[in-house]
Design brief:
By secondary structure, the chain is an alpha/beta fold. It has helices at residues 2-26, 45-51, 104-111, 129-143, 170-178, 199-204, 234-243, 266-278, 281-284, 293-296; strands at 58-64, 71-77, 87-93, 116-120, 146-147, 150-151, 158-168, 188-194, 218-223, 248-253, 300-306.
């Protein structure tokens, strides 16, 4: 028995080592460039509509952080500086090796739809520390007319009633922990986990999470094809989905490797947040109604919807 346990232990260790190496290799893949959406194939009208840039011109702001995640990086609608209204927020948890500085075109796309999008250079997002500090920083921005002796354009402009969170791979674990196990977990209204690390691998890496504690609407996405999305196969994604007791959606994009899931589903990512954070009923049709688009989109498979 001891020998068998030892063999199992070595096997798990080998899987973890391989996974770490593979994730590091993924982090060296080319980053999406401006206009990346034009290269993505779509299979539904709603997906195509929300994959395009929105109507807002965007602006960028960054501020140094004393913590290990180096700086806060924020894309936002440029009109915010001159408007007297509040804007919804998307918080981003980084995937392994995918810092905000590598993902700016994705942030900018979300911002073009009217969102404030905040991320950082955090390397270890799984524990949601970076997400928690992003929320605290948003309160600082919202409550102070000046920051570092300069006029603060975000003063009283942040809609804390409409905050969403998204993360890829390790960042998917960060999403789970942010909405279940942080001081500000109740501030989040909707979430997305892109190819979140499966439960067994997460436990081996000492990235614990409990999806059963999720209490807000969440969409789980992974890739399929080309060796499958090995970080979370269909079995692994279904295992997480079955644990969740809140409103939920699951889908897998065909012919999409793990690294590409960070941006390949952006049409539905944007639609999900437009629905939940901006009340866009056209976007909602991708997920609800008599014929939700995700169930008929030929670019996806294994879709499941439980939004009652």
């Amino acid at each position: 028995m001891k020998k068998m346990l030892k063999v199992i232990g070595f096997a798990l260790l080998a899987v973890i080592v391989i996974a770490i190496i593979a994730l590091q290799l993924i982090s060296r893949l080319p980053v999406p460039s401006a206009g990346y959406q034009k290269k993505l194939e779509t299979g539904g009208a709603i997906e195509a509509e929300y994959l395009k840039n929105g109507a807002y011109e965007t602006a960028y702001y960054e501020e140094a952080a004393v913590q290990v995640f180096e700086k806060y990086e924020i894309f936002y609608p440029a009109e915010l500086a001159n408007q007297n209204k509040k804007y919804p927020v998307i918080v981003v948890c980084n995937g392994t090796g995918w810092k905000a500085s590598k993902s700016k075109p994705i942030y900018e796309h979300y911002a073009s739809w009217g969102f404030i999008v905040i991320g950082s250079e955090e390397a270890y997002s799984w524990n949601a520390f970076g997400a928690e500090m992003a929320i605290r920083h948003l309160y600082r921005l919202n409550d102070n007319q000046t920051i570092n002796d300069k006029k603060n354009v975000f003063y009283q402009k942040i809609d804390f009633e409409n905050i969403g969170i998204i993360g890829h791979s390790q960042g998917g674990v960060g999403v789970f922990n942010a909405i279940t196990n942080t001081d500000h977990k109740d501030v989040y209204k909707a979430a997305i986990a892109l190819s979140p690390t499966n439960k067994e691998l997460a436990q081996g890496l000492e990235w614990p999470y409990d999806a059963a504690n999720i209490a807000i609407p969440i969409m789980l996405v992974s890739g399929e094809g080309g060796g499958d999305d090995w970080v979370v196969t269909l079995e692994g994604l279904t295992d997480i989905y079955d644990d969740i007791n809140s409103r939920k959606v699951m889908l897998r994009r065909k012919n999409t490797p793990h690294g590409a899931t960070q941006y390949s589903e952006d049409g539905y990512v944007t639609a999900w947040f437009m629905w939940h954070l901006q009340g866009d009923q056209n976007a909602a049709k991708a997920f609800i109604g008599e014929s939700p688009e995700i169930l008929d989109n030929p670019m996806y498979q294994d879709a499941a919807v439980d939004l009652e």
